[in-house]
Write a structure and sequence with these properties.
By secondary structure, the chain is mainly beta. It has one domain: Porin. It has three helices and 21 strands. The strands form two sheets. The chain has an 18-stranded antiparallel β-barrel. The chain has a two-stranded antiparallel ribbon with strand order 9-10. A hairpin with a 3-residue loop joins strand 3 and strand 4. The radius of gyration is 22 Å and the shape is globular.
């Protein structure tokens, strides 16, 4: 009982001390209804349609596998994200979503892939105060499985989620959310063999959270969130990673507050391994992304801190701290120049080693420059050049990568 009180006392302390912060996931029913009915331009009878086309990374990558051997290729990714909404009698919102995506490689044909994700769900307003939500998602994605792995692999997840919320007239909300997620990974072939991602990372995550949302400005929402997540790995090779996480967060998301937009977030997490001999993690987490427009300049900054499971067979998990800063300059109304500096520090404490191993620390540094030309409204066509450098205290993990690519953006 003493441990339980201490654990939740620390979570509440983190919430109380937190600045306005992080990831708002719930949107009040009335706000959702108005966005769908009043803002979406495409309709098919009573159905509202929200299509988004994406074209990115159309260019040349000098190290597509992100290994110490350099293999370059011409690449491109095209996707279409279509969501259809059916609003019914101002009390029910039904939706379906489809996201087909194609990854193209000119020479490495085995890397070409077509993936498809889809979802369906509802939001129901009961007695003008209570909101029930439910959704199913099937996600299929080709990309790096974790920040540890630069090469793309195919990942799949199946997610069931539900929620029950009470909303006030001022759109303050309090509710309970539940989620069950099964995650599976494709093994990654390398020059030295195969990385058994499926053996070490396939798992099921079950979570429950209490959430409170409070409107502080006309379009900004502060929140408190606390919950529990259990991680159960599917295979014997990953069983040592079975664990339970207790987490809390506090924050504010402001889509537009004067010249500033983004989110601030700070939280607390305790990750408790079920395997004897592995130390728990207890500490601060963060997820902050801010940007502000000041005349000709747009400034942005990111700070993220969290613990993630490692796919390495000798490591339980790693602690990642990511820092990024960037500036955009608008010398002309239809032209934007960009620069971003981004660094991620990955630390593998000895107390999380599954087998005796030297203390490991990796650093990933990324420089990005580019320009964007406005096509119409907020849509622009951009060209970006990227140089990344990965260094590690463990031999054999230093690598470099660069690419130049074109893309289409919806946020000029």
């Amino acid at each position: 009982m003493t441990a339980f009180i201490r654990r939740w006392g620390l979570i509440l302390l983190a919430l109380a001390a937190a600045r306005p912060a992080a990831g708002q996931s719930y949107v009040a029913f009335e706000d959702d209804w108005r966005r769908i009915v009043e803002s979406l331009r495409f309709s098919l009878g009573p159905v509202k349609i929200d299509p988004v086309f994406s074209l990115r990374r159309v260019g040349y990558d000098t190290n597509i596998f992100y290994e110490d051997r350099d293999v370059g290729d011409y690449t491109g990714v095209a996707s279409l994200d279509v969501t259809a909404y059916l609003p019914v009698r101002r009390s029910l919102i039904l939706f379906v979503r489809e996201i087909p995506e194609y990854n193209f490689y000119l020479h490495e044909k085995e890397m070409r892939a077509f993936t498809n994700s889809y979802a369906a769900g509802l939001k129901y307003l009961l007695l003008n105060r209570f909101v029930l939500t439910g959704a199913y998602q099937s996600n299929e994605y080709q990309g790096p499985a974790t920040v540890e792995l630069g090469r793309p692999t195919r990942d799949m997840s199946r997610i069931f989620s539900a929620g029950f919320y009470y909303e006030t007239a001022r759109k303050t909300s309090i509710g309970l959310s539940l989620q069950s997620q099964k995650m599976s990974y494709e093994d990654a072939p390398t020059a030295d063999g195969t990385i058994p991602l499926s053996q070490t990372l396939d798992r099921e995550e079950r979570s429950g959270a209490l959430e409170i949302y409070y409107r502080v400005f006309s379009d900004s929402m502060a929140f408190l969130r606390g919950g529990v997540t259990t991680y159960t790995f599917a295979n014997e090779a990953g069983a040592s990673r079975d664990s339970t996480s207790y987490q809390g967060a506090a924050g504010i998301r402001f889509p537009q507050l004067g010249p500033l937009r983004g989110l601030l977030s700070i939280g607390y997490k305790e990750l408790v391994p079920r395997s004897a001999g592995l130390a728990r993690y207890a500490g601060v987490t963060a997820n902050t992304e801010l940007e502000g427009r000041f005349g000709w300049f747009n400034l942005r900054g990111i700070y993220q801190r969290d613990i993630s499971f490692s796919y390495y067979e000798d490591a339980f998990a790693f602690l990642a701290n990511r820092y990024a800063a960037g500036v955009s300059v608008y010398p002309l109304r239809a032209l934007r120049l960009d620069y971003t500096y981004d660094v991620t520090l990955q630390d593998y404490p000895d107390v999380w080693s599954l087998v005796p191993t030297p203390h490991r620390r990796d650093t990933q540094t990324l420089h990005t420059v580019g320009l964007v030309v406005r096509l119409f409204r907020t849509t622009g066509f951009g060209v970006t050049a990227n140089l990344s450098d990965w260094t590690s205290t463990v031999a054999g993990f230093n690598r470099k990568r660069s690419y130049i690519a074109a893309y289409v953006t919806q946020t000029f």
